[in-house]
Structure to design on (574 residues):
């Protein structure tokens, strides 16, 4: 296993008390594996990744039982331990390339920065490497592009630059947090195909975060469904999609119309209500107020996720067909 | 009979450059379509293809250079403003920016009545609260401000506001793009219900093919300001003719 996380919790300290953003999540990631993480806004899918990168704000309280990366214990609270890994062994692609890139520095400067920090290259060597990276991600006339600023690039181009930056040190783990949400569909496909190519070529593991189940289904080997700061279902992609056990997973699958199949103008299956806010968490199972299968036990006891597969956290799961 | 007909519509923006030079950029080029009563027309295209400009032109928020738009048998340019608001209304993409943060929900919804029809406040409030119930909001929430609502609820407020003057045509510019998947489904269901109840025609603009396929009777594909494909949704999605439509469909996960 490349990454093993046991019982990671994150709380945010605020004036009105601590808000629980992530509660006891555990998962592992094999080498070369693509894990798809799905969930709606506020489900905690970004928080877990930011914790792993050591990028949470100062008011975040991180607790873990154990985190192992390449069989080494890792303290997520220690910037000293994370700094040499971040950008080198673990890299991240953010959702909006226009805000993730520094607007006042050239593309070349930002690319060289990572290379010079981690690989101790000279400026010249770093520039040469930067050019080859830009070429690899499909940017033409790469040498001239080193001198441009992010605003001179289109969204798709800027995302390619960020991908180039993230793979510059051959990371073992690449976290792609909604890498294509800000982009058009045709560009989305180009970017994801590029990411998958690079993932195979460099034998990286990848965490692909998205709110779009259809997208995760297409590109990942395993799926993790998150809801209100917890993992509520996980397993091999095909199995989860074909036989969801948790009513929320089932709902997510049904709620989204498909561009390829399905009848139009019929009512979609809609999950009633909204994702609970961090300030008003329900008792028991976090999903029970929106669930049509909930009973008394759901209100009282928050189910744990089963350790063996199929893995889900529900008192009244949907039967396997 | 068609409710809305658009013929040879072209529009360009002129951008001023340094030294008095100006550049003309065509954003809509010879766009043609008709919208029949009780139908939903989906418009798909990528960013920059002119989707939103089209919405603005149809609601007369912006003018156009050439072509002809007829709404309910009248030339769009000649319809008096007050009458226009009764014919066509718009729901905007971002439910966070399209509601006045300093007004209560019922005030936002009642405003069209108060401004356009001079309805007394109390009566307008009553009607606004009734409309809230129709779009699935508890009327008790009428006293709250926009920031106290979730994204999905805010979009319902936007829809309620657009329906207050009982328009014939509703233009929805990316109405569900800012919403989570489970909330998207709720709003799409609501729109289909309202369409039946009010006998509305809609123009549903989105970059999301699957949503357009689901909701619309006809689909129009825009590419750099030009209509590259137009037909019954089922046909466009199952048997696309234009290469661009094919590319779009292949790219959709």
């Amino acid at each position: 296993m490349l990454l093993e996380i046991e019982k990671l919790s994150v709380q945010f300290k605020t004036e009105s008390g601590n808000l629980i953003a992530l509660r006891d999540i555990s998962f592992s990631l094999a080498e070369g594996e693509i894990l798809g993480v799905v969930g709606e806004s506020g489900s905690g899918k970004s928080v877990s990744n930011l914790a792993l990168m050591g990028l949470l704000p100062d008011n975040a309280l991180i607790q873990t039982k154990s985190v192992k990366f390449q069989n080494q214990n890792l303290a997520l609270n220690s910037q000293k331990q994370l700094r040499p890994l971040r950008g080198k062994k673990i890299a991240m692609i953010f959702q909006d390339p226009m805000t993730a890139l520094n607007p006042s520095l050239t593309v070349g400067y930002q690319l060289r920065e990572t290379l010079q920090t981690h690989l101790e290259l000279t400026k010249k060597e770093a520039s040469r490497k930067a050019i080859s990276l830009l070429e690899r991600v499909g940017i033409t006339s790469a040498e001239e592009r080193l001198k441009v600023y992010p605003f001179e690039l289109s969204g798709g181009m800027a995302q390619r630059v960020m991908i180039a930056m993230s793979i510059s040190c051959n990371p073992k783990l690449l976290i792609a947090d909604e890498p294509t949400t800000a982009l058009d569909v045709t560009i989305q496909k180009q970017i994801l195909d590029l990411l998958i190519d690079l993932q195979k070529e460099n034998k990286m593991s990848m965490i692909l975060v998205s709110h779009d189940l259809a997208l995760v289904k297409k590109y990942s080997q395993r799926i993790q469904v998150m809801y209100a700061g917890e993992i509520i279902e996980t397993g091999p992609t095909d199995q989860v999609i074909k036989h969801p056990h948790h009513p929320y997973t089932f709902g997510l699958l049904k709620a989204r119309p498909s561009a390829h199949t399905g009848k139009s103008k019929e009512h979609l299956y809609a999950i009633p209500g909204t994702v609970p806010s961090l300030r008003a968490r329900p008792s028991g199972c976090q999903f029970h107020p929106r669930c049509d299968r909930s009973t008394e036990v759901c209100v009282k006891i928050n189910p744990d996720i089963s350790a063996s597969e199929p893995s889900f956290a529900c008192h009244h799961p949907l039967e396997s067909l | 009979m068609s409710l809305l007909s658009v013929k040879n519509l072209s529009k360009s923006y002129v951008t001023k450059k340094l030294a008095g030079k100006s550049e003309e950029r065509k954003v809509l080029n010879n766009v043609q379509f008709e919208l029949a009563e009780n139908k939903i027309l989906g418009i798909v295209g990528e960013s920059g293809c002119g989707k939103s400009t089209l919405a603005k032109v149809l609601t007369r928020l912006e003018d156009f250079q050439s072509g002809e738009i007829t709404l309910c048998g009248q030339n769009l340019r000649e319809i008096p403003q007050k009458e226009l608001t009764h014919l066509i209304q718009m729901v905007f993409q971002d439910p966070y920016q399209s509601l006045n943060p300093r007004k209560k929900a019922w005030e936002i919804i009642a405003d069209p009545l108060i401004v356009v029809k001079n309805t007394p406040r109390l009566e307008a409030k009553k009607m606004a609260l009734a409309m809230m119930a129709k779009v699935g909001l508890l009327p008790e929430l009428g006293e709250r401000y926009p920031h106290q609502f979730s994204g999905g609820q805010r979009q319902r407020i936007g829809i309620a506001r657009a329906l207050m003057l009982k328009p014939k045509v509703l233009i929805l510019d990316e109405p569900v793009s800012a919403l989570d998947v489970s909330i998207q489904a709720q709003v799409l269901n609501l729109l289909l219900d309202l369409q039946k109840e009010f006998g509305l025609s809609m123009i549903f603009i989105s970059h999301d093919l699957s949503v357009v396929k689901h909701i619309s009777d006809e689909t129009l594909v825009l590419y750099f300001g030009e209509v590259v494909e137009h037909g019954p949704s089922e046909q466009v999605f199952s048997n696309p003719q234009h290469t661009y439509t094919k590319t779009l469909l292949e790219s959709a996960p």
